[in-house]
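The records we work with from here on pair a chain with its fold. These numbers are not coordinates but entries in a learned vocabulary of local backbone shapes. To see the layout at work, look at the sequence and tokens printed below:
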Amino acid sequence: MDPGNLGANREFLATGLRGFPSPPARDRGWGIWAPPGASEVTVAVLPASGRYTPSIAPTWFSGPFFAQENPSAWLPALHVQSVPRAELEAILLEASPHRPDWSWKEREAARRRFLETSRTVLHQIEAGVLTKAVPYAFRETSSAFPSTEDLAWLLLHALRFQGENGGFLYGCWNDQEGILGVTPELLFEREGATVRTMALAGTRSLEKGRESEAEMLLLADPKERHEHSLVIEGISERLSGLGTLHVGKTGVRRAGSLVHLYTPIELTLASHAMETEWQDLVDRLHPTPALGAHPREAGAQWLAEEQKHHPRSRFGAPWGVRLDGRDTCAVAIRNMEWSREKAFCRVGAGAGVVRGSTPEREWSEIERKWNAVLRILGLETL
């Protein structure tokens, strides 16, 4: 298949998407992708299980947070089609979407654990071991798996949210597991010798009519600016030696009901680094201090210990596509993930802890981010 020929295919729209978003077969799944501003959404038929084929395009990449644990994160597309947004909405409406009738499991245990972890991080910061870490928490639904009608609702609202607010629409699912979301964060995008990434850290809620005020307060907040500077520092360190690095001006980026500090970073690869592969960039950048911890060696130990007691699956993992001669790898946040085997359907959120952080304030950020995900997916806030 020629990945550059993604034009209108009326037969596929009429028959290939029949039953969408229900998985097309037991050994098949779906993948979706749309970058900010895209007028069309890329829809792919994927194998239900991955295989190590990093040189093949078009390909979806979806693995766990600890990406090195799963060399089969690659899902080479069996068919790819570019679908106009309005037509995809019409297909989803034919699937009879309805708001999922879910209740939410209590959050007190998650709150206690998050506060305890945040205090532990602060102790390590005081001891000079860490300068930043990002504790995380999950809110689980009463249902372990969305129905086709549930999924149609979630996808329809994610599609509409992205069209209005930007971000990267991403997802893949089969009859055993899935993930769906709209992330504001790019891990990297590579085209030829150019690699683009970003520092995205520091968060404030937006109130209608007071958006500019929230942005100014965020830009002036010393705690948030310090947290953001650690992310810039971490990314710059990890890309050093590959070529010429340009760090742009720090500003803000809106993401629905939230606004973040944002700094664009661009790398021009030197001739000796042109053979740098996808996995090389993932290994260097993931996790950035925005989702992980800093400094890197001590942060990796902290992350591994957290994983033992609080498995995170794909929350915050590298997630991307190789398509049309471009590699794009986003950060899998602002999503819902589900699994039959692990018996969960949940949303996750993290909050950065640095010197001067208050655990209760960071917990409030967790709840704001949970609610941001629910708004993306057309669900009631908590």
